Amino acid sequence: MNRRKLLKQAAFGIGTGALAPWLFSKAMAQQAGQTNVPASLFQEIGKRGGTLTLPLGSTPQSWNYFAVIDNFAYTVLNNVFDRLMQLDPVTFELVGVLAESWTISRDARTTTVKLRSGVKWSDGTPFTADDVIFTFTEVASNTNLRANQAATLTVGGVPLRFEKVDDLTFRVVSNKPYGAVLQALTFSPIMPRHKLAQFKPREDPSGYSRVWATNTDPREIVGTGPFILQSYVPDQKVTLVRNPNSWRRDPQGNPLPYFDRLEYLIIRDPNIQVAQFLAGNLDQVPVSGAQFPDLKRQEVASGKIRVLRGSTIYTSPPHWGFNFDVPNPELRELFRNLTFRRAMQFAVNRKRIIEDVYNGLASLPGHGVAPGTFWYYDTRSYLGEWSLERAAGLLDSLGLRRGADGQRRLPSGRVLEFSFTYASDSLPFSAIAAILQNDLRQIGVKLNLQGIQQGTLLATATSGNFESILMAYGDQPDPQLRKDIWQPGGQLNYWHRSVWPERGSSEPKFDQMFPWEKNIWEIFRQAEQLGDQNERKRLYDRWQLLSAQNLPVIMIVKPDAVAAGHARLGNFYARDNRIIYTNFSMFEK
Amino acid sequence: MTTFILRRILVAVPTLLLISVLVFGVIQLQPGGFLENMLEDPRVSRETVENIRRQYLLDQPVWAQYLHWLGGIVRGDFGFSFLNSRPVSELIWERMGWTVFLAALTILATWVIAIPLGIYTALNRYGPTSTALNFVGYFGLATPDFLVALLLIYLVLISGGTTVGGLFSPQYIDAPWSWAKFQDMLGHLWIPLIVIGLDGTATIMRQMRANLLDVLNQDYIRTARAKGLAERVVLWKHAVRNAINPLISLAGLQLPTLISSTIIASIVLSLPTIGPFLYDSLLNKDQYVVMALLMLSAVLLMVGNLLADILLAWVDPRIRYE
């Protein structure tokens, strides 16, 4: 079940990956003044006090981070616990959080991490390397816990070893070179050993999973993060207050967070979240491109809210995938035919999708890389203009003639029709599906829409239970982190499952691959082991070009990021086309 | 009467047993389960799932699981929520207070408003007020509650209000009870009351109206009037008391809707009731929670019916259970 195990990073927008070797001996840059968090978070120095109120889409299941898979619990707990390092919001480079600096040995097998000194847990106990060792060896790599991270903490079947050097230094040792080691360390928040080791996660995983349930005394749940839990009213509200021992400082050396309290109101319905936001009961609300014009009008009219837009790496560009292994032999042959996929690309009206579906808050997509970022190779000329005539011409050239009823016929005489699986509970996906169905009808292709729940989309795709599908994977700062998607044979390379490795083998079935797929596979293999950034970029450029030419999937558009916040929020702003804010750096103006 | 109640309780035991088998069977028959759902999450390995399956005794034969579950219920242990890693009874108990409060208040408001309106519309069949009330009644029946909720919230928003959803303003949710908190609750409560109660009010109003119209055409009403009784006595002592009987049986069926009827309204209005909890558990196939709530709903139905029968005997001297 290696495949399942490793699906993780990709689906959650994080990933394994050879860490670019320019990070050798990289010490955390201490920028602007005395701040120990990224200086770009601050537009101005904030003032202390007030309450930040945010929405939470459902009731958290537990406060035990590794015992539940629950994004709502994580949303709350990410204010309480810190990771070793995180990505800078502007540069997307790794910066230290609990880690202060790190070095990677020349053979890339040993990583030595120096921890920030003077950090205390919220109950006053000093934070040490023991907490890190406990978190990684007993909890994060414990396969008996539901939300374990064991897959990323294993190289070639051998778990990483964590060794304490001194109270503020530890080492990660692997048998084989593991370039992704720093990335792997960013996934797990560090847990307090002095509170949790007594529950023996290794010996009694089911008992451990029951501790820190939502009815636990909040004082037990100690963290190093900016906030700590104060109270929880089931189905209504989670209240956090400033961690008295918070180590974060702003550029003038003032302690962070600025807000005294952080409250999450549990509001399930997205419409009501927006209503509560407009009523002034919430400071921020997640918005989509579809809601943008409406909220922007409110911003202009009332001046009480601010709506920001920016480009981001992380939004998920939808793409149209065809199942190369669909049971129907005629469709299978068709889907594998590049001319057919090019015909389908001509039928994708990207301009209309950007204007009508995303209200202009999207742009032309890249092929696996977010446009405007370092790794991006401009493939826009390969996207082609929307042209139903050219699409029809290509279909004609394939011998798919129209019958008397206007429908095209397959060689066997059957009507050319196939299903299009999409998330019917997603507004943009439903709209895209309708536009495609309508345009294809005009050129005699029948698209049978099959709406499913967004939550089951990934499972449907990776199980191969579809003919064509509208999917979306988030982009990442480094193509290596998306290897599972784009390298043929990868866990998330769902459109060509017949090249997936046999169970227990790590080699994909090369004999089943198209020549261009073999090229892409080789590009990813080489780039993983290269140190020179420019050499890697040359390889990845070639991969993007191959994708644009051979259309493993048809990229639709790249959505922008949008965010809405109350006008009273300081340090909630857009800069360099990025939306910047954190709960600890925002303040009440 | 005591023997009747005792007999009913004794009959309830095998019925509940049968229901427990059905409930368990239905849960077993559904494709997939909580653990299978977990496999869809890419970070969960087959190994982890098998370990958890053993932890929760789900690797045992079905009959053993059933007996284990039933044995637990007898001891007052309704099993364990996979989703929340907590005992089911605790989780239900956490939400019981607000659920009962809201349901009781809605039922009370429904009856207090609907019965007089039913009587009024029956007596003034063709008056403009009755026509208007009937229109509201039809509107209430025909409009889904979530739509009413969104409509009301929209109206509050454009009139500059802030009480959109929930039972309290954010600052009062975890504050101790005070006069200000009570007032704040009253300010929020009317939306859920209308949303949850409108449908029931309309139903009962129309039922009451129809029953009363039936009764008013009966011979004994004519007789009563012929005897020269005051219209007030005719109406309240003879007509209404007879017309209300069928509604009492109806009331017995309302009890289990405590759990299920407010799912959508509670999700839309962010109310802390059992409804959304049941919804989450169903989606995630958190089987012990679902089974506990189904059993609870069955028990409530039986209790409701029993109460209705007792009430009926008390209201209507013609009914005897000996």
UniProtKB/TrEMBL annotation, chain A:
Q: Which domain of life is it from?
A: Bacteria
Keyword annotations of the record: Signal, Transport
Q: Which Pfam families match?
A: SBP_bac_5 (PF00496)
Regions that span the bilayer: none
GO CC, any one term: ATP-binding cassette (ABC) transporter complex
Q: SUPFAM superfamilies of this UniProt entry?
A: Periplasmic binding protein-like II
User: Which GO MF terms are attached to this record?
Assistant: peptide transmembrane transporter activity
Record's signal peptide: 1-20
Record-level GO BP terms: peptide transport
- CDD domains (UniProt xref): PBP2_NikA_DppA_OppA_like_4
User: What are the Solute-binding protein family domain coordinates in residue numbering?
Assistant: 93-479
User: What PANTHER family does UniProt report for this protein, alphabetically?
Assistant: OLIGOPEPTIDE-BINDING PROTEIN APPA (PTHR30290:SF9), PERIPLASMIC BINDING COMPONENT OF ABC TRANSPORTER (PTHR30290)
Please report which protein family the annotation says this sequence is part of.
Belongs to the bacterial solute-binding protein 5 family.
Q: What is this protein called?
A: ABC transporter substrate-binding protein
Instruction: Name the lineage.
Output: Bacteria, Thermotogati, Deinococcota, Deinococci, Thermales
Q: Which gene encodes it?
A: oppA
Automatic annotation (TrEMBL), chain B:
Q: Which GO terms of type biological process are on file?
A: transmembrane transport
Q: Which CDD domains match?
A: TM_PBP2
Question: What topology does the record note for this protein and the membrane?
Answer: Multi-pass membrane protein
Q: Where is it predominantly found?
A: membrane
Which UniProt keywords are present, listed alphabetically?
Answer: Cell membrane, Membrane, Transmembrane, Transmembrane helix, Transport
Q: Which GO terms describe its cellular component?
A: plasma membrane
Report the superkingdom from the record.
Bacteria
> Know the name of this protein?
Peptide ABC transporter permease
Organism (species): Meiothermus hypogaeus NBRC 106114
